[in-house]
Design a protein that fits this description.
The complex is a heterodimer. Chain A is α/β, with parallel strands linked by helices. Chain A folds into two domains: 184 residues, Rossmann fold, CATH 3.40.50.300; 81 residues, no CATH class. Helices cover 34% and strands 21% of the residues of chain A. In chain A, the strands form two sheets. In chain A, strands 6-7-8-3-9-10 form a six-stranded mixed beta sheet, sandwiched between helices. In chain A, strands 2-1-4-5 form a four-stranded antiparallel beta sheet, with helices on one face. In chain A, α2 crosses α4, α4 crosses α5 and α9 crosses α10. The longest helix of chain A has 20 residues. A two-stranded antiparallel ribbon of chain B has the order 1-2. In chain B, α4 packs antiparallel against α5, α4 runs parallel beside α6 and α12 runs parallel beside α15. In chain B, 75% of the residues lie in helices and 1% in strands. Chain B is mainly α. Chain B has one domain. The chains are: A alpha/beta, B mainly alpha.
Amino acid sequence: METREPREPLTGAGGLSVLDVVVSFGGIRALEGVSVEVSPGEVLGVIGPNGAGKTTLFNVICGFVRPQSGTLSWGGKPLTGVHPARLASLGIARTLQGVGLFGGLTVLENVMVGAQRFRRARLPLAMLGLPWSDADERRLRDRALVALGRLGCEDVVDRLPGTLPYAVQKRVALARALACEPELLMLDEPAGGLDARELSELGDLIGSVGSSVAVMLVDHHMDFVVSVCDRLVVLDFGRVIADGDPSTVRQDPRVLEAYLGREAVQDDALRSGGAEDAHA
Amino acid sequence: MTSKLVGVFRGSTLLRSLAIVLVAGVVLIVVTDSVSSYRNLQIAYGAYYFCVLAGLTVLAGASGQISLGQGAFMAVGGYTFAKLNASPVGWSVFPSLSGAVAASILIGIPVGVAASRLRGPYLAGATLAFAVGLPALADKFPAFFGGENGLIVNPPIAPPWLGANFQLERWEAWVACAGALVVVFVLYNLTHSAVGRSWRAVRDGEIAASLSGLRVGRQQALAFTISASCAGLGGGLLAAVTQVASPGAFPLQLSLTLLAGVVIGGLGSLAGAVWGAALLVFLPNWTTDIAGSFSLSSNVSHNLPIAVYGLVLIVAMLVWPSGIQGGVRVIKRGAGSAIRSRRGRGSAEPATAASEATEPIADEEMNASHP
């Protein structure tokens, strides 16, 4: 079943490179030699059935889970063992499953926290309330307002997230990630709980983040993933079983088998090869 | 022109905090000038309680950590003050107070780092152990800490330019209020800066905060240390005002009543800390008076204040879950909407005030009415 040859890590150029990463929890192997690359300007979708290791892969990249072996590099520099709190300053932003907003902070404050990598004033200045600290706050505020404006959330800046509709909260969460001006944007189930119109808005938005930004997203919504992503990586039982452009990947017999089971595939492949309804 | 000035004022944290300190300072000077020396002493008590409560309310309200060990940091401040103020060192009041703050910061950092690894009941337990254990050190080294009797502190002497007849109690009130105003200044600035926002972000979501580049443990340790320094200042002021630093001045019960005072006053708001301080000063007096008027036995009357704290805490939580300051906000809003609806042409909706009262309150001060 070994279908892919080991890749060379990206050298020099920007982008994320995950090479032969192995993670096991107790006796369970969550990732078995996974290699994934994302380049600037590319939208990569990571899909796979439940328990395939998608979120574990995200957690490895973000430093929440340490791989037993394998290497990570970002922009040509090693990323293995980097503390999660350093990611923002390295230009990596991630949204969480659900919304993950700070419930006691207003929308504006939430997004200002996201922009805090650009903060310059230090503790003593803040303690004395000096003008440098205020100027810094104004800069963060402006950045946050730009990010919120980009997502059409200007009208709700002073509200608490809990008082807003779910879809708006998801936009705020995305604004918080964009406020740190990431070069790698990691989206964990961005489409969850959104209706068709909101999905198409989200798709446009992901398409517009810019040619210098690499996007990596995990989602179950197959239509959305296929329409938004330039490339798909399919995980199953901690292994990469397919990697390529969306139309090829969705026809791949191994992918269909992983999603639908062997017999279902035989029935289904006769039809349009649709994995649309395969919500894992 | 005036609108421009208002804009500058609104945009400057420094001007706003200075204005609060200035107004409060003038009020306190006027009040301390017009009341009896006994009342001045009570103001001094209230001021040192306020220092501790303000630090604790920021810790618990903004950063979401709990501490049952503030009494121990008060002890650190109190003993440091007594040592620095006494003969071998012989520093005057304000340098000794700075020393008390420095000592509580030095002890606060390691305790805060340890605290940042603990959550909920474990944090409460660890800080409780600290409150129990630290004052006991005074018994271990009686030659240095004066054992059960503690250290005697000389009364602070008012500077001569205030006149020969300047009352001691009034000067004590001034010293304690000066400390409280420094606390107001620092905590107001901090909670209205990126630092306060970072604390609240960490409180509401550690993973999301860390993905935004915040070091969760560091933020929590910082909040803990700042709260410890406020408690140290409060303890130093206690020693200066009561003229003694002894284990009996910092019992475990003190730490518990401090937490109760913060909760009753209104978690996370500096105004709430004022209510809490007033409660800590006046409640024991009232209960003692009540106990006296019923001619209860000393066993009952000595324990009555504690029982009343418990009762007030329960009642306050039932009536005003967000503390006295939360209640004040509800009343303010209710009055505001009543005035608005009276001014408006249409018939006033009686439900407005009530429905607003039941809404979750977004604390205007530091947003700390955290469910």
